[in-house]
Design brief:
The complex is a heterodimer of chains A (284) and B (313). Chain A is mostly helical. Chain A has 14 helices and no strands. Chain B has a two-stranded antiparallel ribbon. The radius of gyration of chain B is 26 Å and the shape is globular. The N and C termini of chain B lie far apart (53 Å). Classes of the chains: A mainly alpha (284), B mainly alpha (313).
């Protein structure tokens, strides 16, 4: 047998194994999520007696129960309100700071940049206890503005870091032309530089959207007083615990489906930007 | 004054321009920096100070030196939690990175002679890349709830499947520490593998194709090409990923808190959180400081171990 032939045959066996493994991982990655979505249509008693079963008939009432009785509607609304404030704030403050750091020379420029970059490396859990006290002192504990501010503050390091390097890549000519035409710095920023930075803003915007929508640790710490004000992941986690006593598993699965669907859709639409944004986040 | 209200004669004056510039810089930096300093930097610095006090949430915090650290040293529950955390820190990155690298290699370079190119991804690789990433976009709390249901002893997906083939599945999260640890590792790796597939695919995609063509001409098979060409060329990314994954494993909080019942096992961040809930603020911050030191030591070790000459291409 020639060397080339042997190579091909071992390659063949490896090929089958590798392809099987790739497909197996598709099943493993998506399987639990599909199981949750299918089970969301089954009545609770059936889920308990036969967890692997196919939905015999579609029980849409699981979804209305989750939305109304299990408060998923309220939690979703809370998440949306918080996100509207925190995402706007993060993008505005982050791009302002990044623009100044990237485009102006002033004493302390480097130090401020390093200060933001350094913030990405510390474990959040270390700051938790004093943060709780700081929030309490400002009267921001268990309030929506408080949670928004916390989201913004903890998103700023990476947002500023990412946008600083992005603003640096933009051409200087346009900015100078605007200044010569008599535009103020503020006007140049909002009308010239921000529109030019749109691709960078979109990437980091999606990154922050997912990060803040999925946040669990900060709300658990800073927004734990009133169950009505829970955000979606927090509400689902507490629902999972309480369902152990109440037993409406159908509603829990429906709630999980409601929570997972929007992010998976956003991801499917923007998958390139999401993957680029999240992996850029790791290399930081 | 903004330019449009500024009289013509001073508008182009150098001193006016400088003043205008600094006014703008201060105006734009003030709010972001204030937020950042107040809610991120100051809590970190305070944490280090409070770890040396007996603070319990009230206005008084007495300096007690290393008492909290001594208490930690003698606290068996702390050591139990640290054992789990260190196991995660060591095993999770290896498991995740090896699988991530294998999938990434198949996706970028597994196919041969497809579309007339010497090396390309296997068929369907773009679909794989999208699906593998699913877990990464979900909230850790939701992942924990979903897997809590999957691992459920009586009505879970795994034991339900085992039932169908006539096997009585164990109580995954019920009481056995080893099974609990396996469950925890499964979920952590499951949620991060897609991320490393994308990360390593990007790094592998940047390797020039002619290097592969040369290797192929020399008769190198897939395994050989991987170990002698791909791995050395993406080593920097692997090392970064290793550190990142280790720190993620050490930070495991929500998955353990939501999915694993407290009597089975705890990781150190959960142990910290429980001390905080008990009002032992000083003790909790001291645990946080130890976690910070541990992640720094880990990063230094990985950087040392993985230090090789950088290959330029």
């Amino acid at each position: 047998m020639s060397a080339a032939r042997r190579e091909k045959e071992t390659g063949g066996a490896l090929n089958v194994f590798s392809h099987a493994f790739l497909i197996l991982w598709v099943v493993l990655a998506a399987g639990p999520l599909i199981w949750v979505a299918l089970t969301a249509f089954r009545p609770s008693a059936e889920i308990l007696s036969d967890p692997m079963g196919w939905p015999a008939s579609f029980h849409w009432e699981n979804f209305s129960n989750a939305w109304n009785k299990a408060n998923i509607g309220q939690y979703t609304l809370n998440s949306l309100i918080i996100l509207a404030g925190s995402l706007t704030g993060t993008m505005l403050l982050g791009s302002m700071a990044a623009y100044v750091i990237a485009r102006f020379t002033f004493p302390g420029n480097r130090v401020i940049f390093m200060l933001f970059a350094g913030g990405m490396m510390f474990p959040v859990i270390l700051a938790l206890v004093p943060l709780f006290a700081v929030m309490e002192n400002f009267g921001l504990l268990d309030t929506r503005p408080g949670l928004m501010i916390a989201y913004i503050a903890y998103s700023l390091p990476f947002t500023t870091f990412f946008l600083t390097s992005f603003f640096r890549t933009l051409p200087t000519g346009v900015q100078e032309a605007a200044m010569v035409d008599g535009a103020s710095h503020t006007r140049t920023f909002f009308q010239i530089m921000l529109p030019m930075a749109k691709p960078g803003l979109v990437s980091i915007g999606i990154f922050n959207f997912l990060g803040q929508w999925n946040q669990y640790l900060l709300p658990l710490l800073l927004n734990n007083e009133d169950e009505k004000s829970y955000v979606l992941p927090q509400g689902l986690a507490s629902l999972a615990v309480s369902q152990g006593y109440r037993g409406d598993w159908g509603a829990l699965f429906a709630g999980l489906t409601i929570a997972m669907l929007p992010v998976l859709v956003v991801y499917a639409v923007f998958q390139r930007q999401v993957q680029a944004g999240l992996t850029a986040g790791a290399i930081k | 004054m903004p330019p449009r209200f500024t009289p013509e004669r001073v508008r182009y004056d150098r001193r006016y321009r400088t003043l205008d510039k600094y006014r703008f810089i201060v105006g734009f930096l003030a709010v972001p920096l204030a937020f950042y300093a107040l809610f991120v930097i100051s809590p970190f610095l305070q944490a280090i100070y409070y770890s040396f006090t007996d603070w319990s949430g009230g206005p008084v915090a007495n300096f007690v030196g290393f008492d909290n650290y001594e208490k930690m040293w003698n606290d068996e529950r702390f050591w139990d939690s640290l054992q789990v955390s260190v196991l995660l820190l060591v095993i999770a990155p290896v498991l995740t990175l090896v699988l991530g690298m294998f999938f990434a290699y198949m996706i970028t370079s597994g196919g041969r002679h497809r579309r007339g190119r010497a090396i390309a991804g296997v068929a369907g690789s773009s679909v794989y890349k999208v699906v593998y990433f699913f877990p990464q976009v979900l909230s850790v709390a939701i992942i924990a709830v979903v897997w809590g249901r999957v691992f459920n002893t009586n009505s879970g997906l795994i034991n339900g499947g085992l039932d169908k083939v006539g096997v009585d599945g164990p109580a995954w999260l019920g009481g056995d520490e080893t099974l609990g640890l396996i469950s925890l590792l499964t979920v952590i790796s499951w949620s991060f593998i897609g991320f490393y597939v994308v990360l390593f695919s990007a790094a592998m995609g940047a390797i020039p194709k002619d290097i592969y063509e040369a290797a192929l001409l020399d008769g190198a098979g897939r395994a050989r090409t991987f170990f002698n060409v791909t791995l050395p060329l993406i080593w920097d990314t692997v090392r970064t990923g290793w550190i990142y994954m280790g720190i993620q494993a050490l930070d495991t909080f929500a998955i353990c808190l939501v999915m694993v019942p407290p009597h089975v096992l705890k990781v150190t961040p959960v142990f910290l959180y429980e001390r905080f809930r008990d009002g032992q603020y000083g003790y909790a911050t001291a645990i946080g400081v130890v976690l910070l030191l541990l992640s720094m030591v880990f990063s230094l070790i990985v950087m040392r171990v993985g230090n090789r000459d950088r290959i330029e291409y």
